[in-house]
Structure formats: C-alpha cells, structure tokens
Amino acid sequence: MRAQQPEQPYHVLFLCTGNSARSIFGEAILNRLGAGKFRAYSAGSSPAGKVNPRTIQLLERLGYPTDDLRSKSWDEFAAPDAPALDFIFTVCDNAANEVCPVWPGMPITAHWGVADPAVVAGDDGKIEAAFRQAFTILQRRIELFSNLPIKSLDRLSLRNRLAEIGKT
Predict the structure, then answer these.
(1) What pTM did the predictor assign?
(2) Do 72 and 36 touch, CB atoms closer than 8 A?
(3) What is the per-residue pLDDT across 45-100, written as a single tens digit (0 to 9) for each?
(4) What's residue 94's pLDDT?
(5) How far is 109 from 3, CA to CA, in rounded Å?
(6) Cα separation of 154 and 78, whole Å?
(7) How would you list the strands of the sheet with 108-111, edge to edge?
(8) Beta bridge partners of residue 42, listed in sequence order
(9) Is the CB of residue 130 less than 8 Å from the CB of residue 158?
(10) Which of 37, 42, 121, 167 has a CA 20 to 30 Å removed from the CA of 141?
(11) Domains (range + CATH), the chain
C-alpha cells in the first residue's frame, strides 16, 4: 500500500469480468460511502463495453450518480499513468481466477465474490431481485470496509480483515 497523505484518498479498484453490474455497484457505493477517504474505480478483464441498463436503473432509483460510470478494461489501471492502487477487490469468481496485470502501488487484494445478476433468467421481478441482492451484499461489505481503522492495522491484519468481509 502506498504512503498515505492526510488529504489523499485510498484508491480502490473493483474487478469483475464484464464490468457491467457488480464492479460498477462497488464503484458507485464506495464513492458515496467513502467520499473523501476513498476513490473507487471499476474495471473488467473482458469488459462488456456498456453498463447493464438494470444496474443504472437501480443506482438511479437509489439516488446514486451514474453519469461517469462506464464499462472499461482493467488495462487502464495497469498503465504507467494509472492511479496507484491501494486495494483491489474481485467481485466475481472468474476475475479472481484470471491472471491479472501487474498493478502499480502493490495493492492489497481480496476476493468478494457475488453472484452475477446479469445472468439471471426469468420475469422482471426475479431479475430485479437479483440485482438488488448483489447491490445489498456489496453495500454491506463496503460499509464494513469503509469503517475499518486502516491506518492502525498492519498489512497482514488488514488482508485478513478484508478476507473476512468477503465471507459476509
């Protein structure tokens, strides 16, 4: 983790394969809950190229800004001019098992797997419930993360706490 200045936020990247739902939720939630302390981003190993419309609809219904959300490749965050990352959370099992780029900043990583709501079939109610469930799981984990006493934990303790959060 990079040296932290009092006024600089921690940089956090949420990863999944398509970067159209779960990682987008993570970015939006942390940017709201952790404003000032964290700056969240999202990306995918094989980005869909657009954010799932149901993701946007749910976020807007809950009052989250969506104008800056976009589906993008994780390569943007491995480039020399990318922000130095402090934390990376994989939110899908596929991304957790892929060979990732070398990330600047030696970030602490954790796997916070969440079922993909975009693959749920059925009526609108069932699909909407899947999106809401994914959002709720990530929101709870991000609340726990954003309240951790990061500066007072050593790297190993922090890594262990993040792994525990991923199991909630």
Answers:
(1) 0.91
(2) no
(3) 889 999 999 999 999 999 999 999 999 999 999 888 889 999 999 998 765 455 66
(4) 65
(5) 17
(6) 25
(7) 38-44, 10-16, 87-90, 108-111
(8) 14
(9) no
(10) 121
(11) 10-165 (3.40.50.2300)
